[in-house]
Amino acid sequence: MTSMSGPEDWVASPVDVVDPRARPTMKNVAALAGVGVKTVSRVINGEPNVSPATIARVRAAAESLDFHPDLHAGNLRRADGRSSTLGLLVGSVGNPFSGAMHRAVEDAANARGVAVFASSLDDDPDREEVAVSAFLRRRVDGLILTTVSKSQSYLLPELRRGTPVVFVDREPAGVEADVVVSDNAAGAAAATRHLLSYGHRRIAFLGDRADIQTAQERRRGFLEELGRAGVATADIPVITGLHDEDAANRALIALLESEHPPTAVFSSQNLITIGAVRGLRERGAHHTVALVGFDDVPLADLLEPGVTVVAQNPHEIGRLAAARIFARLDGDRSAGRTYVVPTELITRGSGEMRPK
Amino acid sequence: MTSMSGPEDWVASPVDVVDPRARPTMKNVAALAGVGVKTVSRVINGEPNVSPATIARVRAAAESLDFHPDLHAGNLRRADGRSSTLGLLVGSVGNPFSGAMHRAVEDAANARGVAVFASSLDDDPDREEVAVSAFLRRRVDGLILTTVSKSQSYLLPELRRGTPVVFVDREPAGVEADVVVSDNAAGAAAATRHLLSYGHRRIAFLGDRADIQTAQERRRGFLEELGRAGVATADIPVITGLHDEDAANRALIALLESEHPPTAVFSSQNLITIGAVRGLRERGAHHTVALVGFDDVPLADLLEPGVTVVAQNPHEIGRLAAARIFARLDGDRSAGRTYVVPTELITRGSGEMRPK
DNA sequence: TCCGGTCCTGACATCGATGTCACAGTTTGG
DNA sequence: CCAAACTGTGACATCGATGTCAGGACCGGA
Q1: Domains of chain A by range and CATH?
Q2: How far lies A206's CA from each of A78, A184, A247, in Å?
Q3: Distance (Å, rounded) from C-alpha B118 to C-alpha A95?
Q4: How many other C-beta atoms are found inside a 10 Å radius of the C-beta of residue A146?
Q5: N or C end: fewer C-beta atoms under 10 angstroms in chain B?
């Protein structure tokens, strides 16, 4: 601490005093180990042709300085320019469907030392573009996106550069790429067929915002199945634009109190299903009005009656999406494909009631 | 495709042919706009002293090339060295508690243009160190960590360098830093007091792995409350080491079939609570044996009976953790503090049954 | 007219790593 | 025993951006 130089202390100290607030670099490690920086680089990256003695010295120096290499600096020069980073945009990281997908993506990424940026879309087109832009500025190696904008053509230049992009849960517009989605229309049709087979003819549809692609598909599957069964859809109550539990709850209660209440309900999204369950309970109709939901709901099997659903497989969607990204990073140049992950009808009671 | 040069084709083309697979840099934008790179930098970063005409030219060039600045390259030279990135390590991104926390962190980060790396811990000490190391190699500005290792002293050098670290959900060992946790012992005591007040004396404890800090705290709160009430804890069934729904389910069934079955159960974690609910149902005991769980469970209010819980506030934990990180990034140098987020007893029926 | 001060602008060094290449010393093969 | 090949190593340019600094154009005032 005491200065040892005289009045002419303009001479820089030849010894690098270690500043605990400074982050060590390869240069520091090299100096401490008495080798060149390139040799440190070789040791850190496990490159061959370094003597065991040198390896040991470098390791010890790196350890004693708590050196962590700067991945991004290395990236800059590195030939393939990979950042070992993925961008994932989901509905909301707080939502169980998104969480399961996220988890599957993470597991695949982890196995390759890839880190995942996760962002929530909140069905807001502005957030979509902001998030994608944030990912691109950080030079992610690939994008897994849930989208809500009218068109994803803003991604065309990036796709042309070869960045792998996989769209999940919803199909994009204006671009060709890999897509991984649930069997939305077919699942909705299966749910509808199930209710029809129990004798229901007046089945209400509770749907999400009409501008969301999956919501449209589910509605289409529902209506087409009714058509196939020869049910006149004119007086079928189709309610859309519900975006949370509360709206669904109110809509269902209004239906129950209408002149011709439905004998069954198809709720086309998990939050809507929960709102519908609440509504049925509040009116004491949960043992008389049938209900089938799209997308599984936690603890649905423990409710009384259990909630019959068309379950999606978010884990499989995430797994497949990540697999596509890595396949393309490994050189797959085939044309973009759409992968449809099947849904599964799980009967638990609420969907197996006959109209009274 | 056909070569237009003669045998001496060593002459490089003076015109830069635009390669659609190449990612544009500031140099490319500068060339197209007919300005220097530094001017492009100024425009992109909104620095002053650039003429409106130049701004327009640069903007147009950047737009036409679909230029996205490389944040990490900028970072390298940038004075503060901030990467606008955060590392978040949670129990599992697929778990609703983690999801809620993650969401709150994301919201705070988003407001400052900060992206979040999310990783799952899975209560595996190796994953903890691997994840932290991956974060540090990517030069995150701050760390929000759920931990499981015996000691976090491996973080001391990083803390000394001034990287803000906040521990969430569980208290760390061997380091001093900001900590945000639920009121574990007090919450467990409140749950216990609640059951005692309904006349229960033989209350079983179903607990998570004993080496997890929060699990210990909840057990302590439970036992201390029994002590205060003068209940002999000798013949109180305390079962720990349950790490999933299934184990909890089996443990509970074994208890019910034992010689002196409990009249009430305190399940100290959300998966354990679910396993306990299943066990009670399978044995038809859900209307006779009381149950209070620690941590809320989705749809708990719709079950029959509703599940009484001591609810945590994961959103508030995440919000507070992010707030601490940003406060420290903004210069707060105060000593590390522990923030305790209160829990709340929510009565729904399962905890309000008297012993038969 | 000259001077000092803004306003704009670009050349250049630099951040922390890796790719290339040159070079010395050691083996190997003929 | 010597050329060829291989091993171990470090100097240096470079990746894409920003900080520094210097210089030219233009302004108003003396």
Answers
A1: 26-74 (1.10.260.40), 85-182+315-341 (3.40.50.2300), 184-312 (3.40.50.2300)
A2: 52, 15, 10
A3: 15
A4: 23
A5: N
Residue B15 is predicted with a pLDDT of 44
**Alpha carbons B275 and B254: distance in angstroms, whole number:** 13
d(CA B253, CA B246): 11
Please state the rounded mean pLDDT for residues B311-338.
98
User: What span, in angstroms and rounded, lies between the C-alpha atoms of B148 and B121?
Assistant: 8
From residue B3, alpha-carbon distances to A78, B7, B8 in Å are 31, 10, 11
Q: How far is the CA of A49 from the C1' of D5 (A)?
A: 15
Sorted by sequence, the CB contacts under 8 Å of residue B273 that are 6+ apart come out as: B248, B267, B291, B293, B294, B295, B297, B307, B309
Cα separation, A25 vs A70, whole angstroms: 8
Place of tokens 């707080």: A94
- What is the full DSSP assignment across A170-223? S--SS---EEEEE-HHHHHHHHHHHHHHTT---EEEE---TTSHHHHHHHHHHH
DSSP-derived secondary structure for A145-161: E---SS--GGGHHHHHT
In the structure, what pLDDT confidence band is assigned to residue B197 with cuts at 50, 70 and 90? very high
Q: How confident is the model at residue B79 (pLDDT cuts 50, 70, 90)?
A: confident
Write the DSSP symbol of residue A7: S
CA angle A273, B297, A282 (to 5 degrees): 45
d(CA A213, CA B187): 44
pLDDT of residue A198: 98
List the end-to-end C-alpha distance of chain B, in Å, as a whole number: 89
* Spans in chain A with pLDDT lower than 50: 1-16
Question: In this structure, what token pair is assigned to residue B220?
Answer: 């302590």
Q: What is the pLDDT of residue B14?
A: 42
- The whole-angstrom separation of Cα A168 and Cα A88 is 10
User: Which residues 9-68 of B interface with strand D at a CB distance below 7 A?
Assistant: 23, 25-27, 37-38, 41, 44-45
Give the pLDDT confidence of A223-270 residue by residue, as tens digits. Answer: 999 999 999 998 899 999 998 999 999 999 999 999 999 999 999 999
Instruction: Fill in the amino acid letter for B331.
Output: G
CA distance A276 to A256: 11
For the purposes of burial, counting CB atoms within 10 Å of the CB of A257, is it exposed (0-12), middle (13-18) or buried (19 or more)? exposed
Say which range, A189-198, A228-237, B140-149, B320-329, has the weakest mean pLDDT. A228-237
- Say whether the CB atom of A138 is under 7 angstroms from strand D: no
CB A188 within 8 A of CB A221: yes
Query: How is residue B338 written in tokens?
Result: 């522990």
Q: What amino acid occupies position B337?
A: R
- Closest listed residue to residue B150, CA positions, set B119, B179, B180, B171: B171
A68 → chain B, closest CA residue: B137
- The secondary element (H helix, E strand) that includes residue A219 is helix A213-228
pLDDT given for residue B8 in this prediction: 33
From the list B72, B76, B298, the residue facing A139 with the nearest CB is B72
Contacts of A99 in chain B (CB under 8 A): 93-96, 98-99
Q: Check residue A337 and give its pLDDT.
A: 98
Q: How far is the CA of A45 from the C1' of D2 (A)?
A: 37
pLDDT, residue A356, reads 83
Q: What is the pLDDT of residues B92-116, one digit of tens each?
A: 999 999 999 999 999 999 999 999 9
Per-residue pLDDT band at B18 (split at 50, 70, 90): low
Are residues B161 and A22, on separate chains, in Cβ contact within 8 Å? Answer: yes
Comparing CB atoms, the residue among A71, A99, A119 nearest residue B106 is A119
Whole-number Å distance, CA A38 to C1' C30? 36
